[in-house]
Design brief:
transport; SBP_5; 4-stranded antiparallel β-sheet; alpha+beta; globular; 10-stranded mixed β-sheet; about 550 residues
Length: about 550
């Protein structure tokens, strides 16, 4: 059960070609003759609208480096944790990463032969400095690293933590490493935009070339430790909305993006046989959360009946237009986590079985009157399901669930589509009846179960997860054991307690794997991840973009 080793174009209806930075589908692509590299730039796009302020600080979530995503190809991390495929860990700036038995200590050996982009040598001291910024309180601990000590012995760095990081391995390993000889002079890394001369120095495959409000251009690092790069330039742009982004992708003006595109076959894939779309399931899932504190969801029999009625494949095929993978296991775990399903639940799956659902309800004292479901108190069963307006996939799923439960069980479901603020307040305060929401993705079973059953998320009576406010002391203890165990045996024993409660109590209903999406074209480069080789997702905003860029080769 361990993780296996192994800027902006304004929002107009049509996309604008960037002057001097044409996409891969034009004749004006950047040339890099004589270097042995390719001759065609890649344009990486987002639909987030204009970003008017430059900030290259990799630690700031609202920096342009983070919003565009270009910070991830400049500043690298110790290792890459694959959120899909084999869920494996690939050492990166570290030649090796090793956890102790209870995941309270990480030992990393700095990769030799690496240079910073200004020519200085990369050393273990740079790794230690980067983490010590958090340990010493100079940098906010936004990743909840909870460091205890950082020590260096030659080329080896040891990180000690106050708590187990088994469920947070990716957060630790994806922490971006910065050069001590630059950052030691930065007074406040929590606010510095890193725009000074010579400050944007990393170990990554690309270096900053130019920054404007229309585009950010990066060029290949000629001394990159990972070898020669096929793509000579990256252009980062941002379009005003998904429609403009889709147009840019379909026409070849943009080459690579992460976006949910409605009617993707007609609007993107059919425009060019080289246009590709990869859906990468993760351990997270789009999930129906129910308020367990109030009727009708305070009755596990009703929740069980819903689990036998809701069509997860319709969620995938219709709401997500194929961009997901149905979750049918009674444990709530998707296919990536099949090895964490307890033996007694292996192969036990829900299906759309209205007769079974009705039998569960009948046994619990429910009846029907004029085809409407009546609860044991004599009241008609009805509830609302809430998703913010404009979340088109989940808005569609709202309608599907309402139709399925009306036709199958006689439950009247009100579709509620408030603005984000109203929805957010209700989910935190527990004033909703049902919502669709994502899960905390930890790369293992813990993500689902802590998200749906762990009281730790309720602080000052506001929920960050466990929106239904499930509370069982035995499950809470088992969750803590799973997260902090020093052996797989202890973790497996804890998981059996958790899964039994989840199967019997149905605190939430996962619908389909929450995927990472990637749109890209193969007209100039091959070597992208695929359904047959998910060495990473194809999402260019993820840390593994550096891995993809090292694998790309010119198309024949």
């Amino acid at each position: 059960m361990r993780l296996r080793t192994s800027l902006a174009v304004v929002g107009i209806a049509t996309a604008l070609v960037l002057t001097g930075c044409a996409g891969a589908g034009t004749d004006d692509n950047t040339s890099n003759e004589g270097t042995g590299q390719g001759t065609v730039a890649l344009t990486i796009a987002k639909p987030d609208g204009a970003i008017s302020t430059e900030s290259n600080n990799p630690y700031l979530g609202d920096s342009s480096a983070a919003k565009y995503g270009y910070g991830k190809v400049i500043f690298e991390s110790l290792a890459l944790v694959n959120p899909t495929g084999d869920l494996g860990t690939t050492p990166w700036l570290a030649e090796s990463v090793t956890w102790n038995d209870d995941y309270t200590q990480l030992t990393a050996k700095a990769r030799s032969g690496v240079k910073w982009s200004d020519g200085e040598d990369f050393t273990a001291e740079d790794i230690a400095f980067s983490y010590k910024q958090v340990l010493d309180g100079k940098l906010n601990d936004t990743n909840a690293l909870d460091l205890k000590a950082v020590t260096v012995d030659g080329d080896t760095v040891t990180l000690d933590f106050n708590s187990s990081k088994f469920t947070q391995q990716a957060r630790v390993l994806h922490f971006q490493i910065v050069p001590e000889h630059i950052w030691a002079d930065i007074a406040d890394p929590n606010t510095d935009p890193l725009t000074g001369e010579g400050q944007v120095v990393g170990t990554g495959p690309y270096v900053m070339d130019s920054w404007t409000t229309e585009s950010v251009t990066l060029t290949a690092n000629p001394d990159y430790w990972g070898g020669e790069l096929a793509v000579p330039e990256l252009h980062y742009v941002s379009y005003g909305d998904n429609a403009a982004l889709t147009t840019a992708l379909a026409t070849g003006e943009a080459d690579w993006a992460q976006a949910f595109i409605p009617q993707i076959e007609d609007s993107y894939l059919s425009a060019d046989p080289d246009n590709q779309f990869l859906v990468s399931p993760t351990a997270g899932a789009g999930t129906l959360f129910m308020n367990l504190q109030t009727k009708p969801f305070n009755d596990p029999a009703l929740r069980q009946a819903l689990a036998w009625t809701i069509d997860r494949q319709a969620y995938v095929d219709i709401a997500r237009e194929g961009a997901s993978e149905a979750v049918w296991s009674v444990t709530g775990l998707g296919s990536l986590l099949e090895d964490e399903i307890a033996p007694e639940y292996a192969g036990q799956d829900y299906s759309v079985d209205v007769d079974k659902a009705k039998a569960v309800l009948t046994d619990a004292g429910y009846t029907w009157k004029d085809e409407a479901l009546i609860d044991p108190d004599g009241e008609a069963v009805t509830f609302s399901i809430s998703v913010p307006a404009g979340w088109s996939d989940w808005n569609t799923e709202q309608a599907l669930i309402a139709e399925e439960l009306k036709e199958g069980l006689g439950i009247e479901v009100k579709v509620d589509q408030p603005d984000w603020g109203g929805w957010d307040a209700a989910r935190q305060e527990g004033t909703f009846q049902a919502i669709i929401h994502w899960l905390e993705d930890t790369g293992n079973a813990y993500g689902l179960y802590t998200s749906t059953m762990d009281p730790k998320w309720i602080v000052d009576d506001k929920a960050a997860f466990n929106f239904g406010r499930y509370d069982d002391p035995a499950v809470t203890e088992a969750l803590n054991t799973y997260a902090n165990a020093s052996s797989d045996e202890d973790r497996t024993a804890a998981l059996e307690v958790i899964q039994t409660a989840f199967v019997e109590d149905v605190p939430a209903i996962p619908l389909g794997a929450h995927p990472l999406l990637g749109e890209f074209n193969t007209r100039n480069y091959v070597g992208w991840p695929s359904e047959d080789d998910q060495y990473s997702s194809a999402d260019p905003t993820q840390p593994a973009i550096v891995q993809i860029l090292t694998k790309l080769q010119p198309a024949e």
